Amino acid sequence: MVSVAGLAGIAAVLALLGRYVVPTLWRMYTSPLRLLPGPSSPSALWGFVKVLHAAEASVPQEQWVEQYGPTISFKLMFGIRRLWTVDTRALNHIIHHTAIYQKPMAARYHLSRVLGPGVLIAEDQQHKNQRHVLNPAFGPSQLKEITEIFTEKANQLRDLWMAEISKAGGGPTRVNGLSWMSRATLDIIGLAGQHIPLRRALDDPLTLPGAGFNYHFEGLNPSGQTNELSEALGVLFNQGGRAQLFGFLQGMLPPLRLIRTEHTRREAAALAVMQRIGRQLIAEKKAALLADAREKGRGVRRRDVADRDLLTLLIKANMATDIPESERLSDEEVLAQVPTFLVAGHETTSVATTWCLYQLTQSPDVQAKLREELLQVPTDSPSMDELNALPYLDMVVKETLRHHTPVPASGRVAMKDDVIPVNTPFTDKKGRTRDHIEIKKGDLLFIPIQSINRSKELWGEDAHEFKPDRWEHAMEKTSQVPGVWANQLTFLGGPHACIGYRFSVVETKALLFALVRAFEFELAVKTEEIKKKGDIVQRPVRVEDQKPDLPLLIKPYRAF
Ligand code: HEM
């Protein structure tokens, strides 16, 4: 006799098979992706997961593209195939058809659990509404005002590094470039940001507001101590190996999400901190807007509130009585933007600036030429226009973001059957020449950001070299790249393109401006002791212990 518990167990296994295993097998044997050229899988269970994990991002895929052509597929976990195409026509189609190509279930599960329904994961009409509200906070005129914050924080970092050098006796001093850059960009995106009190705050740089909300991370403090919100962010976004694998499986197999582990408990506590602080910031801003409206004898109206900082725009879109109900953001959507912007806007820019410093240690001539240009500027607090008028700085930033792409790829799933046109026809496994890629609902694919950024086909034979001078001349073929900035895919393109790309570029310029004028940089270890690692954002890590670090030797530049 089978017990009730036994029957329940059998039912659970059958449900799991019916819901997840059978559809996965069905997709494996029916997806048109199986007919695309590509390498044979080394493992039935893992596919190429381990190979890709051990390699630098996109390197194996670039070799496969050389061998099999621009449109390929390869297997990952459980034998499920992914499409990988570097065909710019195909990518243009994918990036612009956001009703069809959306973030995969596993990515959405993880992001939505931590971020809530923010702009990074919203789709369709909800995404359009949110972008409509948020876009003005990232336009050139708003950015002009907050550039002051970037330069002030950059100068604060410069002064702290000077103090480190003095403490060490004045000679070349070792610093972890990655960690300092992370603290500076966290402060900047920090939850502060109404530009009205900025002037007042400039008198006291430690209370300087950041660019996003209304919160002081004070990451740039000499003790290096972190506060509760930055600790919560660390728990939520810097998971270790085992937690990462389990998290991946939870993303793929929803029943596993019911299992509680030590890590999920720590995560829940961190989430609670994030939400408590987010709610408090929103409540304070709401109260201020309401008090102002009451003084004027009416409710909060969009046309009465002129400020365009992120928090004000969000609250206005939540409360204003002259915005139609259907376009208003819910409380939940407003709250979700707090972690969304902290996450999307912090580590990405810190890593970009860190790679730039790394590259300057590898290209001393570029470092010297850049410093020479920066020292021509007669102020240490340049405006956005002054920063953007520096041609070599612009070329160095463009080349860094191309060559050291912070986010190397992004995943998508097809929400329905589709046909993707290609520039370059390919021959499928049945020997047929195809001028399109067939897609079935549920098929998974990657947008190969880094591979496009360093494709020899588009950028020339020297695509893998760091050469800022390439930006002196127009590059004809790169105009095919469907990216929102500088003909590269770094910030993606289409409706989901990075909202903060201008913000990030000016922020990176401001940090480089302050640091390269003041210091000379060398790598404190041998080049081969540092490598690139990271699943979503690529950081420099030490080869010996895989710890994120950019060990720099800094010394004051004599002319400063
Ligand atoms: C070098 C720095 C940065 C890089 C490389 C970068 C890259 C990207 C990429 C590739 C995406 C598209 C992700 C996808 O759909 O798969 C994205 C989206 C996004 N980024 Fe950035 N980003 C950077 C800086 C920033 C900054 C500074 C902010 C905010 C202040 C920001 C906010 C966002 C947001 C909110 C989205 C979601 C946009 C949407 O889906 O509508 N990013 N970013």
Automatic annotation (TrEMBL):
One of its GO terms (molecular function) is iron ion binding. Pfam families: p450 (PF00067). Its cofactor is heme. Keywords: Heme, Iron, Metal-binding, Monooxygenase, Oxidoreductase. Heme binds at residue 498. InterPro entries: Cyt_P450 (IPR001128), Cyt_P450_E_grp-IV (IPR002403), Cyt_P450_sf (IPR036396), Cytochrome_P450_monoxygenase (IPR050121). Pathway: Secondary metabolite biosynthesis. The keyword Cell membrane does not apply. Belongs to the cytochrome P450 family. This is Cytochrome P450. It comes from Phlebiopsis gigantea (strain 11061_1 CR5-6) (White-rot fungus).
